[in-house]
Design a protein that fits this description.
heterodimer, A: alpha/beta, Rossmann fold, 2 domains, six-stranded mixed β-sheet, 7 helices, 23% strand, B: mainly alpha, MetI-like fold
Chain lengths: 256, 295
Amino acid sequence: MTQVETDHHPRSTGESLAFRDIGMIFPDGTEAVRETSFSVAKGEFVTIVGPSGCGKSTLLKIASGLLEATSGEVEVDRDRLGYVFQDATLLPWRTVLGNVELLAELHGFDRDERRRLALEAIDTVGLAGFANHYPKSLSGGMKMRASLARTLTLKPPVFLFDEPFGAVDEITREHLNEETQRLFQSEGFAGLFITHSISEAVFMSTRVLVMSARPGRIVAEFDIPFPYPRSPELRFDPEFARLSGEVSHALRGSHS
Amino acid sequence: MSTDTSTDNAASTEIAQGDSTDAAVRPRQRTAAGVFSGSVLPPLVLGGFVIAGWYGISYGLLDERRRFLLKPPHEVLAQGFLDWPTFSEMLSGLWSSTQVAMIGLVISIAIGFLFATVMSQAKTIERAVFPFMVTLQAIPILAIVPLISFWWGTGQRSRIIVCVIISLFPIIVNTLFGLQSAERGMHDLFTLHHADRVTRLRKLMFPAALPAIFAGLRISAGLSVIGAIVGDFFFGRGDVGIGQLLRRYANQLMGEELLAAVILSSALGVTVFMTFGWLQNIAIGKWHETSGGGA
């Protein structure tokens, strides 16, 4: 039992989140991640694409402390970490408002303060008018918005996204991508996003990392130069297609 | 050519869809007459057949000498329900049994919640306690009746104990299942935000358990009524419950009263079951995906 990762404040290099030589071997002997190092600076939105089961999500779990790496260290301020899960993980017995208030509640904010934060976040994701709805009456996309709003209430400087839009349909996904890059602009967080989708990665990110099949390693890195805010039409830009092609090529290479 | 067929197909699908939505909407617009013919009439008709069959057996199958085995409905009504001294005796018996059932159920709920909560906190505790729960559940109640009367006498206390033994298990099992039903992701969310054990239990596990808890309560509430009547049957000291009356009517060949008491007992069971269905709707109907059906 070695406690190697630390969660003291990041160094003054501007890095909000840094992985240093992270390795992860599960108790059953599966090597999920090998010697992975990279960092996400303030103002960066980094996306990791990779094949299924390559350990992408494992990296987020390690960053957040849900899992402990077997080697290497993570630098991040865990007290204010935003984590958006694969599922919306809304509590079905709470309304949208109740769900969005949850984190502030767990962190001991008083009633008025958490109400104010929640209403503001609900407004930001465009769910005003649905505050009193229960999750069962929301669509998949709206549930994800509520989940985003919940994370926004704590105004985290670092946002981890664990394939959050994998379960929604294509058009909803595109809308959510636009929404996310808009939030990235307005809230100014450092983002680390996990996905299978290349176009999602290229559309939102400042940088795309390609991870190999298990054991996962970073095998390629692409800077995405498009300025923000990015419009939906960017998806039809030849340069967008060229970059997507390059990422796709690297991803194919990592499979073999 | 191919475009033509596809347009045709599209058009016909559209029509079909229009039809099906119409059909889907219609039954929802419930009129009083619709409710009557839809959900009141069928059981009434079946009930009519049952009563006709009952008459058939009383007068057709049984001769005069053996008719006491199944008295015809109108005599059961007259002697069992409309004869006030008899009926009031039954009502007070029923009330006594209801009290036993309710006290037993409340004790079962308290013990059940406590055990399930403790068991939910550590797999080791669950593994240690569970075999004993199953054993307790597996003991035939008849086998421990002598033991119960030996330890606690033959009064109301023993009746309540029988009631608890019968109704405890479903509450523990369902509550435990419910407490373990919160999704992994939700637990992760609470872990990430440093929720302590009590907060996790109060804000996550317990609300998540409510649907299962109500499923268990409905089963146990019915069982507690059975437990009260069974307990009555064996432990006759003190208040006279409906079980004692059933026993007496049977011994004295009072067929009308016996059938009336049976009908009252089942009415109690149905009432309790429906009450908990109604409570369930109030408690979780707003958010739970599949509830809302009522009793």
